[in-house]
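User: Hey, my collaborator sent me this sequence without any context and asked if I could get a structure. I don't really work with proteins. Can you help?
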Amino acid sequence: MEIIRRLNLAELLQKKSFFLLGPRSTGKSTLIRQQLAGQATLIDLLEGDHYLRLSTRPQELESLARSEPRRSIVVIDEIQKVPELLDEVHRLIERFKIRFLLTGSSARKLKGDRANLLAGRAWMAHLFPLSWCEIKKFDLHRYLRFGGLPQVYLGQDPAEELQAYTRTYLYEEIKAEAVVRKIPAFARFLEGAALSNGQLLNFADISSDCAVPAATVREYYSILEDTLMGFLLPPWTASKKRKAIQTAKFYFFDVGVSHSLAKVDTLDRNSNLYGNAFEHFIGMELRAYLSYARLTDALTFWRSVNDQEVDFVIGDHTAIEVKATQRVSPKDFRGLKALAEEKRCKNFLLISQDPLATTRDGVRCLPWATFLETLWGGGLF
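Assistant: No problem. I've predicted the 3D structure and written it out in structure-token form, which is a compact way to encode the shape of the chain:
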């Protein structure tokens, strides 16, 4: 199956050095080989020779980086393995104007007190699972069940691939970084967090369900963020007529990974789980588009203390409600109508699986595929 990734590395690197962050298996190494072949010197810190040499003698980065002067870019893969190299990267950018691409699947060590984040000399980019626009023949049900990791979505046995991925995360990523002492407790937490994916964070409930102290639950969520396994969706709090809640939601970075951790085996079209997966999918498309298009608009959600809710708010201009229904009904507009009374947003969208595109009371109702075509075409806002 033909896959053309939306992120253009060569275009980014014409402007600046970059950190490229993304969870394992999102395709960073493949993307580098496809787009930078012949242009870049590759230093892979997962290779024993490179790791041992540079972890003990970081100053040898200069000889590696300048060994092929015809290549204008130096790629350091998995930079978090040797964060001390960032001091050398900083020096080489300043002295020789070398352009670097620094990839990583964990931000935990990069956030440490000693990590040199290059003081603006390198910008930040992210790689996400496959998006709708990157898959030539998109299968919605397959994506909602198994997610968009390339090896999973394109694999012959996606369920087995997902299980292998989550095992790798638990027993290699987490254990190797020595950030969790009790793997069984963390595994229970992961299941509980996956079952509450896309819901308001409630540390007390997760603590009770998983038999893990609430303080530990907070730390575990930080680990998920730092290892890029998930992200917080903050609330939009600019509403005046209706007081907004202040609690964030948490989403895993991939709908399939969330299902694997929650031990979901089937996805019934008429279940709440299906609706949650569809919402998660649209949210990830929005997040990926904003990142790849280099837009700074915040992605948030709105919920009043009276439980009126809109799934996603982009900046202060676009409100988006997501419904998996195949036929839109008046009740689906309630959250958008309540938010419209605030007179802040200009665009109101209802995204569903209803094939009919209409406009009702100032709300554009779009079939999901039409919405994504408009979004990725740059014509949504």
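In plain terms: Residues 272-292 form the longest helix (21 residues). You can pass these tokens on to your collaborator as they are.
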